[in-house]
Amino acid sequence: MKLPTDVVKMYKEVHGWVGIISGLCLFIAFYAGALTMFELPLQRWASPPPTLAPPPSLERTPELVAKVLATHPQAAKGYDINLVIDAAHPARMTWMVRGEADEHGGGQRYYASLAPDGALQVESQGPSEVAQLIDVLHQQVGLPFDHEISMPIMGAIALLYTIALVSGLVVLLPSLVSDLFALRIGRNVKRMWLDVHNVLGLFSLPFHIIMALTAVVFAFHDQFYGAQGLAFGGGAERARPSLSAPAEGPPPATLTPAQIVARVREQAPGFTPETLVYGQGRGGLPALRVQGSDARYGLRAPTYGMAGIDPQTGAITGTDYMPGMQDGWSATITSFFALHFGNFGGNTIRWAYFLLGLAGAFLFYTGNLLWVESRRKKERKAGAVEQTRATRILGALTVGVPMGSIAGISVTLAAAKLLGSHASYGMHSVIYYALFLIAAGWALARGAARSGVELAILGAVAMLCIPAASLIAGTGWYDAPALMLVDLTAVLLAVLLFLSARAAARRAAAGQRDSIWSTIRPVADPG
Q: Membrane spanning segments where (predicted)?
């Protein structure tokens, strides 16, 4: 396709500037987002073995609930009955206790089981929260601010991301046919990186369009629902499924958890219940929601769909978030969430999203790399022998931010096994940001060329901390052999980082002396 040269040049400028502004944040979002494809397995990998007795059967669960409510009456406000027990859900019954200071989150979660002699066991040490930190890094593009502050910033970055996709496609259109499968590996390293950038961007374009549009929806979720409510009415009721409760009156007899599960399976045969969420409805009456999954449909939440249940009869009463039972509007909205979360199609889609997420992070890294190198080339043509301060800083951040994010996530993930039950969300956050800031500071102090080698080695060593932590903790931390894939994946990524460090070292020593990736001091042109 032919386009006027000045149009292509304008879009190229736009693509470069929006890319350099948003690229570093998008690298963190995509790298952490790729890991969240396996958030639950990561949580199980990082969580210590449970100290409670094995969970009572579902038939004995009413006995457990009665004993908990007798000794911990605050649990009556709301508690969960886990139907699937693993390291991430180590107890049959859990509940959260929040004070006035925890109005917007936080609080203490408790876990309960029955000892072999029927005595009640209650524990406050739960599964690791490191997977939750990685998810927050993904949602907030690595920003350490409150959610209310970070999300609008994330939304603005998502809009820039959309502009970068459109402008990048326009720039590529004139050479689309000739460069479609081009990957020219040779002495012209910049040309090779450009080919890699173009191929990654073009073949993953549908994935990136989905991510950009859904990220904007997530960032301005509340505003969209508010506008919907003003325009059509009733939008607020769809914003969150409420716990289903019977009409007001004397407390009715409710079905047992085993009976509830049986009734749900009768009404939704393909749905797998995983958690029963009990609460209080109108007038303090019992209320109930069931969470689970159905492999045939996408899910509204990252790992589950949900439905309101009448606790007296077991009838499904709320289907806005129920896979396969939603109306057209709710199913359409859910499809946006499912396309972003990749929670349809089983592990095949999750691995595909994982690889596309890593490729997306690499796309932003190569984009920044190309932009900084082009800027340096223009400076050199203008007569600047040494790099300008802005170019040095941008080059250093292009290396320091991605490598700091990789090292920080790897070390804080490994720390979950080394610190065990003592590792809190705050400790994981401190470890991540400490590594991230050290890497960024090191890159600024040493420059892009030297730190590119050194921080790639740091990232590889940090990645190897993951299997090393598993060796130290022992096999008792695995509740399924498949969790060893976490360690194997870390080893593979460490090897790739070591190889990138070796390639960067070669380029720093023997590449073009005017490149920002060269450690050879540039010289002025003769004359």
A: 16-38, 153-177, 198-220, 351-372, 393-419, 425-445, 457-478, 484-505
**Cβ neighbours of residue 445 closer than 8 Å, sequence gap 6 or more:** 451
Tokens of 205: 């374009």
Q: Are 157 and 212 contained in the same domain?
A: yes
pLDDT averaged per 10 residues in sequence order, the chain, 527 residues:
83 88 94 96 93 95 97 94 94 89 72 96 93 96 92 93 92 74 68 82 89 88 73 54 57 88 96 94 82 92 94 94 92 89 91 95 91 87 83 94 98 95 92 98 96 97 98 92 96 97 92 84 68
Residue 181 lies in a domain: yes
> Which pTM value belongs to this model?
0.89
Other Cβ atoms closer than 10 A to 479: 17
Domain enclosing residue 79, as ranges: 58-127
Do residues 137 and 144 make contact, with C-beta atoms less than 8 angstroms apart? Answer: no
The percent helix, strand, coil of the chain (3-state, each to 5) is 65, 10, 30
Judge whether 207 lies within some domain. Answer: yes
* 323 located within any domain: no
* DSSP bridge partners of 114: 120
